[in-house]
Specification:
Layout: H1 12-27, H2 33-48, E1 52-59, E2 62-69, E3 77-78, H3 82-90, E4 94-96, E5 114-121, E6 127-135, H4 143-156
Antiparallel strand pairs: 1-2, 1-6, 2-3, 4-5, 5-6
Helix pairs in contact: 1-2, 1-4
């Protein structure tokens, strides 16, 4: 049985530093990408408690919702549409301080105020999934989150096609 333990009262960088080895151990013997995504999203939710945390997988010419934690999700998402589709199309991380200011933002929840989306590349080198995180707070994500979440995504990428 695995539990995620994060020291109380620690800053974000320290939270990621505590979380990363625990997720690495949790995924050490995992061979299935969907299972890895499921446990990763649950671990991030336990550590940070954001509004929505989950993965979208590239299936054909759309992003289809995968494992997540939080309220129901929008799916499918077209290539280049919304924050997730834009991250996929541009193969880059996008941090949105205020989702209402992002042109074409897809509002799955009225509680989402800021967002970060990171692309995941598979063994082919192309983007085959994205990690999407929504916060109920404005301007809740920074380079610290981009780096920490990027390290977590790197644990899943070898399992992706």
């Amino acid at each position: 049985m695995h539990t995620i333990e994060i020291p109380a009262g620690t800053g974000r960088a320290a939270r990621y530093a505590a979380l990363l080895p625990q997720v690495r151990a949790l995924l050490a013997t995992e061979r299935d990408a969907v299972a890895a995504m499921a446990n990763c999203s649950a671990a991030v939710m336990e550590a940070f408690g954001w509004h929505w945390i989950g993965f979208y997988r590239v299936i054909g010419n759309e992003l289809v919702v995968g494992p997540f934690q939080g309220p129901v999700a929008c799916s499918p998402i077209a290539h280049g549409k919304g924050v997730c589709g834009t991250s996929w199309a541009e193969a880059r991380t996008i941090i949105v301080p205020d989702v209402d200011a992002f042109p074409g933002h897809i509002a799955c929840s009225a509680f989402s105020r800021s967002e970060i989306v990171l692309p995941l590349r598979g063994r082919s080198g192309t983007v085959v999934a994205v990690l999407d995180i929504d916060s109920a707070e404005l301007d809740d994500f920074s380079a610290v989150d981009q780096n920490g979440l990027g390290e977590l995504c790197a644990l899943i990428e070898p399992l992706l096609p």
